[in-house]
Amino acid sequence: MPFALRALTLSAALAVVAPSFAEDAISKGEYVARAADCLLCHTMPGGRPYAGGLKMNTPVGAIYATNITPDAGTGIGKYGYEDFEKAVRQGIRKDGARLYPAMPYPSYARLTDEDTRALFDFFMKEVTPVRQANTPHELGGVYSLRWPLGAWNMIGGGGPFRPNRDYDAEWNRGAYLVQGAGHCGACHTPRGWAFQEKALDEGGGAFLAGGVLDNWSAPNLRGDLNTGLGRWSEDEIFDYLKKGYNRWGAAFGTMRDVVTWSTSQLSDADVKAMAKYLKSLSPSIDRTVPVWVYNSGAAEALAARRYDRPGAATYARQCASCHGVDGKGGGALPALAGNPAVLDPDATSLVNIVVNGAAPLEGEGGGDMDWMPQFRTFLGDREIADVLTFVRSGWGNRAGPVTPAAVQSMRQATGALERAQIFHMR
Known about the structure:
Blueprint: H1 3-17, H2 28-35, H3 38-41, E1 55-58, E2 61-64, H4 81-90, H5 105-108, H6 113-125, E3 138-139, H7 149-156, H8 169-181, H9 185-188, E4 211-213, E5 216-218, H10 234-243, E6 245-246, E7 249-250, H11 254-261, H12 268-279, H13 297-303, H14 312-318, H15 320-323, H16 340-343, H17 348-356, H18 381-392, H19 404-414, H20 419-422
Antiparallel strand pairs: 1-2, 2-3, 4-5, 6-7
Helix pairs in contact: 2-6, 8-12, 10-12, 14-18, 17-19, 18-19
């Protein structure tokens, strides 16, 4: 689409995507940066804000986040607005080279001119310059070439946000945040043969239907009753995005960082809009699967100390004190019964979190009781596989077994990671 026409389209959208935030608290640009989660990807654990260096694993090798502080030598200090706009919404650097789509520019293409300009002003006027050289990417062969990305954009590139006039302004604001700044589809939408997102909005049934990235399985966010948000109310979706937990589960892995640095810092009105939009998405994959119903059999056996099923004794010894013999958890300690992440056909995230642990939620609901310990050092592959199979088949859960080979594969893929790396992977 020609730039002038795109600008007109975006300008027309402003009426339904106007931000809602306390203008006296932070600048509009900082608010957009929080919504876009820029800090999470462009900051190393313990590093200077936005100075880059974070390692992101992809199927074709490791990519390192770049320095986006306004340092003129190693950051984006020499960028004008037009250069910045091309990088953010089109994936083209100032020197004309294409950015790898680890930078979610297919989503950021939906940002309005107003939000993109505010974001530019924030980085140039409010972010402290840091002189820190970028780390070279670890990509081999043809994957190190950037010119084919121009062709990739014809398949996986995004376009401007277009309000849906069949819905109200709140729904459209939620759609704008989820599809655009929040770039939820970058993790939660399955990828195609060229690693492109199979859909970029609700017009495609694959949009937010779940995806696997960097040894995590990002769950389905559509209306599926078992593996998605079908049983969640709008208020429960709001709680999850704002606090990191609700009665169905708690954020873990990268999503904990998303809650900490992004969604918990948005206005209540914006988080409610996101919840409204997500709740409106139709089911995608498990329409024919029996709906989860709680079954007390596992709880009764654990309470009676009958450990006749593989994994039951390990669960009682290692897991029940937090998640309960009834599998219902409590507060920020997630329920396992009926948890969509537990019911996910892909157990990658469950294996990862048991092997590598998880950081506590920050803010409301967090604290020492919310630590998920690493079990890689004192449980074997068979023990972890058995306890996860027990969890995925207890309390009415109906999900497939986990194999020792899957656990061993996760150990090898993640290695002996430092605690900070484990809790800041993306």
